[in-house]
Amino acid sequence: MSILYAVGHLALGHICGFLTSKASKTDINMPLILLLSVIPDVDILIPQLQHRGPTHSIVAAFIVFIPFFIVYKKKATPYFAALTQHFLIGDFIVGGNIQLFWPITTQYYLSPFGMNIGIKSPVNIAAEWILFIASISIMLKTNQAATFLKPHHSNLLLFIPLLTVLLPTFQNFPVNVPTWLILPHLAYIFIFSASIITDLRGVLKYIQHALRKLCFRLQAAPLETNLYASPHLVSIQY
Questions:
Q1: How much is the average pLDDT of 206-227?
Q2: For helices 30-38 and 77-87, what crossing angle results, to 10°?
């Protein structure tokens, strides 16, 4: 049964989100796009869920996105594309076995295209490299890469994508990474880590600034209290 590593899902999710945003003429939030690209595989971490079950359902995905389509209209399209590419392209089309129409049915569906490429096969590794290079090229050409180094609260969303490339690379979970794909994994680890650290530094600066203002107010409070408590003293001074 063929699947993509996190590198392939992240790259393909970004490409689909980017192309859809161009078609709909909307801007995208990169950390959110990348998070949605890999979030269906959260079922690996939840024992109660079968892998490629409800989280890989196009019906469930559409139901979840109905409120977002109502509120944000076409602006939600890139995020829907980033989410659904994971199981429609990355898993199902290339030969996966998924619960495509849950909860209407719990039946698992095989790809009608008959592709059965092994995850560690040269074909799959080459495909992931192509997707990775295409995604990075888009980031560099459109200056999206620079956004990772700008403090923004959404950068913390990259913690989950970071885990999807970090754990396989260093802990062999849920699968070990072949030598030929270590470099793309390390590249994503570096990008996501740098972005998260940049955001955390911004948060720390904000906290420090807030604490300084609080300390200043606390220091000024006794003086203000004394002035209001001694009106005669104030009048004498004037």
A1: 73
A2: 30
Q: Which helix (H) or strand (E) holds 110?
A: strand 109-110
**pLDDT exceeding 90 applies to what percent of the chain?**
57
Distance CA 204, CA 156 (A): 13
Judgement on whether residues 138 and 174 belong to the same structural domain of the protein? yes
Q: Is residue 152 part of a domain?
A: yes
Residue by residue, DSSP assigns 119-135 as TTSHHHHHHHHHHHHHH
Query: Do the beta carbons of residue 218 and residue 165 sit within 8 Å?
Result: no
Q: Is 178 within the bounds of a domain?
A: yes
Mean pLDDT computed over every residue of the chain: 87
Whole-number pLDDT of residue 114: 59
CA distance 93 to 33: 21
